[in-house]
Amino acid sequence: xxxxxxxxxxxxxxxxxxxxxxxxxxxxxxxxxxxxxxxxxxxxxxxxxxxxxxxxxxxxxxxxxxxxxxxxxxxxxxxxxxxxxxxxxxxxxxxxxxxxxxxxxxxxxxxxxxxxxxxxxxxxxxxxxxxxxxxxxxxxxxxxxxxxxxxxxxxxxxxxxxxxxxxxxxxxxxxxxxxxxxxxxxxxxxxxxxxxxxxxxxxxxxxxxxxxxxxxxxxxxxxxxxxxxxxxxxxxxxxxxxxxxxxxxxxxxxxxxxxxxxxxxxxxxxxxxxxxxxxxxxxxxxxxxxxxxxxxxxxxxxxxxxxxxxxxxxxxxxxxxxxxxxxxxxxxxxxxxxxxxxxxxxxxxxxxxxxxxxxxxxxxxxxxxxxxxxxxxxxxxxxxxxxxxxxxxxxxxxxxxxxxxxxxxxxxxxxxxxxxxxxxxxxxxxxxxxxxxxxxxxxxxxxxxxxxxxxxxxxx
Length: 460
Description:
Layout: E1 2-6, H1 10-20, E2 25-30, H2 33-42, E3 46-49, H3 55-60, E4 68-71, H4 76-90, E5 94-98, E6 122-124, H5 126-139, E7 143-149, E8 154-160, H6 176-180, E9 185-192, E10 195-197, E11 210-215, H7 220-226, E12 236-240, H8 244-256, E13 261-266, H9 269-279, E14 284-287, H10 293-298, E15 306-309, H11 314-326, E16 331-335, E17 352-354, H12 356-365, E18 373-380, E19 384-390, E20 411-418, E21 421-423, E22 436-442, H13 446-453
Parallel strand pairs: 1-2, 1-4, 2-3, 4-5, 5-6, 12-13, 12-15, 13-14, 15-16, 16-17
Antiparallel strand pairs: 7-8, 8-11, 9-10, 9-11, 18-19, 19-22, 20-21, 20-22
Helix pairs in contact: 1-12, 5-8, 5-12
């Protein structure tokens, strides 16, 4: 597969690096010579200097032979035109664009992206996706991550095993169903001392582990309690940063949870006035520096259950979260772009880290994977992903029970959805054609997992 990535910023280079490690032929282009040079020298990709929307630049980048174009420059308009040129002049089959301005994303304008207009197959809006992801986390207090899969029938949750009441600590995974009196979940990943792995039945849970669990929504409350989490849903929330993420999140909370007392701290006076006019009486907007203790106290941070720091500056987000928790705020959700900060954040007391680049990668990779994959969520950029895929007739996946078919090491099935019913599988469970499976797949096992999903009859 050959892919052109337009834009060598943080999102573009992360995508390029990620796809290149899978053996995909990547060309990345940027108008900034230094950005293009750095990408060319740092990763196994080809860097080109030029405007992404110019035909001669796309031709130089190999658009005539490209299978996909991913446009993630800083300009919505450049991204749109790049997709148009790629389709009209070079017949690139798949075109993905990042579009950030809300005016382009209103449902009433969706016809704009039809094939005979602006032919964009997939529109990515990281700010909206990040806001949606944070809103989901607020509904499951105690979980540092939560994703709905299979049309809401299955949920993936991430839990810290750091409380004294976590009943799983010291137990082997194989012991847990008997303790819970049912096979109600599958633990698909464990993060321990910065290392992530797919656990086996004889692995013990240790205090300080972070675990990812697949379960039915009806079982979540009991599982949360078993793992020592009985936090209440936040009723007093402070958002730091009134940019696109903060404003989208505030609007979502105002619409879906009107009982939440919502305050926003925004540094820019002009922006503060704008978001105040947008939100009306649904939120209190404070203009000031969130790193100023007096501003935090004015927002009554000591009485808030959750602070959500989503400015454009990682350091501001981190230190605003730390200061808020020091003043008594119960929980911190923090947006962080730089991966190098990730190992440090648990020691700061930050409960949940949100990575825009990880969300963007998840959206894009779904369109690169085997066509049976309908949804995808990146757990960690250096580990693997949780996929939702359809089992096909003739694939090895349906050739026997899970113990017999030889799932590759690094692939674990967490749930099966059959005719609307959820099955939490054991080794004796057999997948049937047409079933939806929820599985974790490490990047080392990716090619073998795709072979497991592929139909032998069709050769796909």
